[in-house]
């Protein structure tokens, strides 16, 4: 039986029109670093978005399905592009300004951006790349910055304000199929080319509803949101769309992401809710210790991107009365994910184990753990497996492979269409997720998984060990076994048997490494993480001096 | 460009599975009137729902697309039917047990219910109708009640518990198109046959997300919900689906809807949130005055169904610390509607004008006011028009007309597909709706609308007037003009000119009635509302002694 309900699509256009009409008085406040911040009402933002759409279509010839890039900070003009470009049926490609130049070039060419809207302050980054960006015909410059660096470039150059000025404030928004692409964001893994995720109107709309829900960020028209997480990073966790949908004012930090201006803008504009990675909050905490500001307007801050140290969460709560909420997500998940809201009826202390977990998923994110042997892992709080997810705002493929078709790499998608997150952890009976490892860092030994992170933490707790990295190496009998590489503290000398005995008191016998090697330093990536693929390669190349102990126990 | 997101449907099945897995410890608590309430976890409810689906399919032969009726109070078994029937691809038809017998018979036959699940306590209502219910092959009786009244009936009779006992706790849930019907609810207008609204999986899913949002009822896993509004009335405002989706425990009042047991169950089970019509809250307030109970667990109650007197809202807040939130909806809207959450940054007193309005609509409900001449009415807080709405959980047609096809009566749907709510009001600049009249009660005079309710309120403020009803009557020059019918208080005698002068100080001159009649009593409907169609008919039949004053001003 067919229902009798209206068939109305879920689109970014609806978010634009609704925000303008119903929440027209809410504000977008962009920090300018000196003097008064720039303030525009949602109504003005929507009118300017409409003018932008007209300009892109009339003047630059942008058609439905074409790609418009943005190389911008978090500011009002970026939000205008967020709303205008998808609403006119085109696709907004947010460019990560922190990517290496070659990757940035690669993704602009891969997505075939016809236009790039760029902040003036980022022109020094864009200008040298322009000759390599084969599809880019127009550059639109927003905000202050020296335009002369673009002199002589092949693309036509426009000033954002001049381009939109006097354009019509109405646009014949197309009725868009909710499954069409609205926005494009590339995720840069550690291996291979960046992979594009093409968010749909449907996924953005549903995700916005989720952010505004009690299981999400509890964002409402009574809030002012400070999105510190960049708008080029999974749509600033979807918060600008959600704020415009729900009528929350938005404080945009622009390029002022250092602790001091962040503290200044919080004191001055008084946001109620914020979202950022732990590093930002760590920096803000130190800044407030050094030079106190009134940050009492903040009721909650959402932390994600990497695991937040519980000490940081407690520090914010105890010293500033700000509740820190842990969340987990990925670009492929729009990016939400799980949120660590504890169950009801608990004391503050009882809430902590739930709050430091990755949290629970909403109904729209189905989740399961898969064991090394492919079987499902029970939700008992201790059995571990790789996290796989499924749902209407989760990627089911990547954008445009070699032949232009969506592609589904085997290491990223299961045959039945679930996304493999590459994260390993356990889920409690009541659905709370605790992640322990990246899948590539666990050792798959005889159908069981051994956590390299756990082994490393135990080894580094030994008084003579400076650093330790554990990696999986091939083993004929078990498939994989752990190799422990250890950096000793200066002037110390322990033997492997002692270290293994130390471990044996802390972990199961079958998890104990047989292979050991001393190294001078653990190789690191550019952001300071252990670079385990270097260790694995050195082992494969026979460069390590490996001692093999008698297999013990297993 | 197509997106790369997964194409996962929004279904009731997802709500069922998610609630069972992630919120398995939440509870459904059904009040039993004596002794301990019945308690089941979401996990148990989901298992029993699955057994019910197996029973309906295996034993009763229910197939996808067929209709299963429920004639039940708010209790756990009704929730099990809510989850099981749509998940197996069938349609749950909730039967309004307060309908007259002939209407109940009509809708069961119209929807072709094959099965009716009925509470034992409601058998005296169902038994006499059964011989007339031509499509009903099976009756499933849940809960206590004398089954002997069914002796000799044509349909097969089953006991709910015996039927589901021992059935498999797995079911091969079909992958359902989200636009298929999941539930069916008839709305009984004052004229014509009842009209069926067939909710889709999509509409129920999106509506549930909205109830759990900050713009909705802010319902979460930290709540215990008490839905007093019946589950046969627009799915209890969608709250049971939302609670199961978000993990809120549910206190089901079953048939104990009188003020005394409601107060008892609130004190005993301590719900945090409730939803009901104003009459319920008025009764509860009096009950608490007469015999105080501890109702401090309630943080918010949502009131809808009819306009809530501000005095009632204030009384709950001041005497019991419970915040009353006004909401508006219709069966055709799933039923939400607008919610009167005030904007941020206001004092408690400044919030009141917003809180006594009908509130604002979320992004998924597009709304507009249409004037008598068909033009759009500006959102200026004073211009009035008929409210029209559009969105993914709003009916676009009614279920099965004479030929079985969906039908779209002209007085209910605009040519461009919007639902005409039949309500008249104004919308403020920031989107807050204030309803003033039913469309059929406004007087369309020369392209302007005159509020009969406003005229009545002013007339009834005159010290000599006991009651007054104003209706539209045909007028050659203006299309329609108001007729004022007045009931004087005993022993008083005023002339019409005096009353008109009294009105003239309060309303615009062109709104003043020329036609006046004294009547002995305003005719009322069975629920005590003014029955204006009786007055209009008496006027048309020449039964009223009408005095025509000189036209004034207009």
Automatic annotation (TrEMBL), chains A, B:
<dbReference type="GO" id="GO:0016874">
    <property type="term" value="F:ligase activity"/>
</dbReference>
<dbReference type="InterPro" id="IPR042099">
    <property type="entry name" value="ANL_N_sf"/>
</dbReference>
<dbReference type="InterPro" id="IPR025110">
    <property type="entry name" value="AMP-bd_C"/>
</dbReference>
<protein>
    <submittedName>
        <fullName>Long-chain fatty acid--CoA ligase</fullName>
    </submittedName>
</protein>
<feature type="domain" description="AMP-binding enzyme C-terminal">
    <location>
        <begin position="454"/>
        <end position="529"/>
    </location>
</feature>
<dbReference type="InterPro" id="IPR000873">
    <property type="entry name" value="AMP-dep_synth/lig_dom"/>
</dbReference>
<dbReference type="InterPro" id="IPR045851">
    <property type="entry name" value="AMP-bd_C_sf"/>
</dbReference>
<dbReference type="InterPro" id="IPR020845">
    <property type="entry name" value="AMP-binding_CS"/>
</dbReference>
<dbReference type="InterPro" id="IPR050237">
    <property type="entry name" value="ATP-dep_AMP-bd_enzyme"/>
</dbReference>
<dbReference type="Pfam" id="PF13193">
    <property type="entry name" value="AMP-binding_C"/>
</dbReference>
<keyword id="KW-0436">Ligase</keyword>
<feature type="domain" description="AMP-dependent synthetase/ligase">
    <location>
        <begin position="26"/>
        <end position="399"/>
    </location>
</feature>
<dbReference type="Pfam" id="PF00501">
    <property type="entry name" value="AMP-binding"/>
</dbReference>
């Amino acid at each position: 039986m067919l229902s009798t309900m209206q068939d109305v699509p879920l689109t970014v256009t609806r978010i634009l029109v609704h925000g303008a009409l119903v929440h027209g008085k809410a504000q977008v406040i962009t920090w300018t670093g000196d003097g008064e911040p720039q303030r525009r009402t949602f109504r003005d933002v929507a009118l300017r978005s409409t003018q932008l759409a007209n300009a892109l279509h009339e003047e630059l010839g942008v058609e439905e399905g074409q790609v418009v890039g943005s190389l911008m900070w978090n500011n009002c003009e970026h939000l205008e592009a967020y709303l205008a470009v998808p609403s006119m049926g085109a696709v907004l490609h947010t460019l990560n300004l922190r990517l290496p130049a070659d990757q940035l070039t690669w993704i602009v060419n891969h997505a075939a951006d016809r236009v790039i809207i760029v902040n003036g302050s980022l022109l020094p980054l864009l200008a040298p790349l322009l000759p390599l960006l084969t599809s880019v015909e127009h550059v639109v410059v927003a905000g202050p910055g020296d335009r002369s660096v673009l002199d002589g470039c092949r693309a036509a150059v426009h000033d954002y304000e001049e381009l939109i000025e006097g354009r019509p404030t109405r646009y014949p928004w197309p009725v868009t199929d909710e499954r069409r692409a609205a926005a494009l964001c590339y995720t840069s893994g550690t291996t291979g080319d960046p992979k594009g995720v093409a968010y749909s109107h449907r996924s953005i709309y549903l995700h916005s509803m989720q952010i505004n829900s009690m299981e999400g960020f509890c964002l409402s028209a009574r809030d002012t949101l400070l999105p510190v997480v960049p708008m080029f990073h999974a749509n600033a966790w979807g918060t600008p769309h959600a704020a415009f949908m729900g009528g929350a004012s938005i404080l945009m930090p622009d390029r002022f992401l250092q602790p001091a201006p962040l503290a200044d803008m919080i004191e001055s504009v008084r946001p109620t809710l914020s979202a950022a990675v732990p590093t930002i909050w760590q920096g803000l905490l130190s800044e407030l210790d050094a030079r106190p500001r009134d940050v009492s307007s903040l009721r909650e801050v959402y932390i994600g991107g990497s695991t937040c140290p519980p000490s940081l969460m407690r520090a914010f709560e105890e010293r500033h009365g700000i509740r820190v909420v842990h969340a987990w997500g990925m670009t492929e998940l729009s990016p939400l994910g799980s949120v660590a809201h504890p169950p009801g009826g608990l004391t503050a202390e009882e809430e902590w184990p739930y709050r430091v977990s990755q949290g629970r998923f909403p109904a729209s994110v189905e989740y399961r753990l898969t064991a090394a042997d492919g079987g499902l892992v029970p939700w008992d709080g201790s059995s571990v497996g790789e996290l796989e997810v499924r749902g209407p705002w989760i990627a089911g493929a990547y954008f445009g492979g070699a032949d232009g078709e969506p592609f589904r790499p085997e290491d990223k998608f299961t045959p039945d269409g679930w996304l493999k997150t590459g994260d390993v952890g356990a889920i409690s009976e009541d659905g709370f997720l605790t992640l322990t490892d990246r899948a590539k860092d666990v050792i798959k030994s005889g159908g069981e998984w051994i956590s390299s992170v756990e082994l490393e933490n135990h080894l580094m707790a030994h008084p003579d060990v400076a650093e330790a990295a554990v990696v999986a190496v091939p083993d004929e009998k078990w498939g994989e076994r752990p190799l422990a590489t250890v950096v000793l503290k200066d002037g110390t000398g322990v033997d492997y048997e002692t270290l293994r005995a130390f471990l044996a008191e802390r972990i199961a016998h079958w998890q104990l490494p047989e292979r050991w090697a001393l190294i001078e330093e653990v190789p690191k990536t550019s952001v300071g993480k252990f670079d385990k693929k270097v260790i694995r390669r050195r082992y494969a190349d026979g460069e390590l001096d490996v001692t093999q102990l008698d297999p013990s126990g297993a």
